[in-house]
Design a protein that fits this description.
Blueprint (H helix, E strand, L loop, with lengths): L1 E5 L5 H9 L5 E6 L2 E5 L5 H13 L3 E5 L10 E4 L10 H8 L3 H12 L5 H10 L7 H9 L7 H10 L3 E9 H11 L3 E10 L2 E7 L5 H15 L6 E5 L5 H5 L3 E5 L3 H4 L4 E3 L14
Parallel strand pairs: 5-6, 5-9, 6-7, 9-10, 10-11
Antiparallel strand pairs: 1-3, 1-4, 2-3, 7-8
Helix pairs in contact: 3-4, 3-6, 4-5
């Protein structure tokens, strides 16, 4: 196993202190702010020690099998809200209705896994009934921003020939625009019902919950003729866990504790491009 340590800023002496816990054969710089610790000891106790030390130093870490590279994968599947982009779109839409605190509270509970996703989405969308549909464009224009490292990550994986899937419990209004803007291959998300220019407070054509996210990854993999083990799956909330579990590499990005605990890799400090140093053979 190799241990990758990276951060927004990295001091070599901190890397050496943390790496010593895993007794590496060598430490190699693989970027301005990333190091590969070669042939480390790996067990639960070492992982726990590294986890605490890295968190305290604001560094991200990952134990990766030697030789793994982007060439091992054919697909990157991403959640949208709070993963590919920095906002929760439904919270910002609700803000146009003066209801952001109420909706955001339900969103947070759902992402922590405390409320079943379908129930939470139904409740949140119902609060938007009567809102002018123009609020969606305002959120896109005024509030939506890509997460740090998103464009660099996408550029690298697309150059390497990987396909891209944006699968979201959010809304097609936004995923459609992300698909065009970022030249993504596949998207799947929820569709808000709009009648006479107003939101009706309902989602139509089914709800994309955790089970549907998993099924979508499986469908796209089948379409591409690959195994889900050839997919990298990235997410932040409890509704991402099912699709993350079937992936060859699961990545928790700025994620809730329940997701960080179950992912192969957690990126808490660096951007989405933090997956690239992990897969540089």
């Amino acid at each position: 196993m190799n241990l990758i340590l990276q951060g927004l800023t990295v001091q070599r002496h901190l890397v050496e202190q943390i790496a010593d816990l895993a007794r590496p054969r060598a430490i190699v710089a693989i970027g301005e702010h990333a190091y590969r610790c070669v042939d480390v000891s790996y067990n639960d106790e070492v992982k726990s020690q590294i986890d605490m030390a890295a968190w305290g130093s604001k560094l991200d870490y990952a134990f990766i099998e030697r030789g793994r590279s982007l060439a091992d994968f054919k697909l990157v599947a991403m959640d949208m809200d709070s993963t590919l982009i920095t906002i929760e779109c439904i919270d910002e839409i609700a803000d146009m209705q003066g209801l952001k605190p109420q909706v955001a509270e339900i969103t947070e509970a759902a992402m922590r896994g405390e409320i079943e996703f379908k129930e939470s989405l139904t409740r949140r969308v119902a609060l938007l009934k009567g809102l002018d549909a123009g609020a969606l464009q305002r959120v896109y224009d005024e509030r939506l921003a890509l997460s740090s490292g998103a464009e660099k990550m996408l550029s690298a994986i697309q150059a390497a020939g990987l396909k891209t899937l944006l699968v979201s419990g959010g809304f097609s209004f936004f995923t459609d625009r992300m698909k065009q803007r970022l030249t993504l291959d596949y998207t799947h998300s929820n569709q808000l019902e709009i009648v006479d220019g107003k939101l009706t407070g309902r989602v139509i054509n089914g709800i994309v919950d955790g089970e549907e996210k998993k099924a979508t990854v499986e469908r796209v993999c089948k379409d591409l003729g690959i195994s889900p083990k050839q997919a990298i799956v990235m997410g932040d909330g409890a509704n991402d866990l099912q699709m993350m579990r079937i992936a060859g590499l699961s990545v928790a990005f700025r994620a809730k504790p329940v997701v960080r605990a179950q992912a192969d890799v957690a990126l808490n400090f660096v951007g989405l491009d933090g997956i690239l140093p992990l897969l540089t053979a």
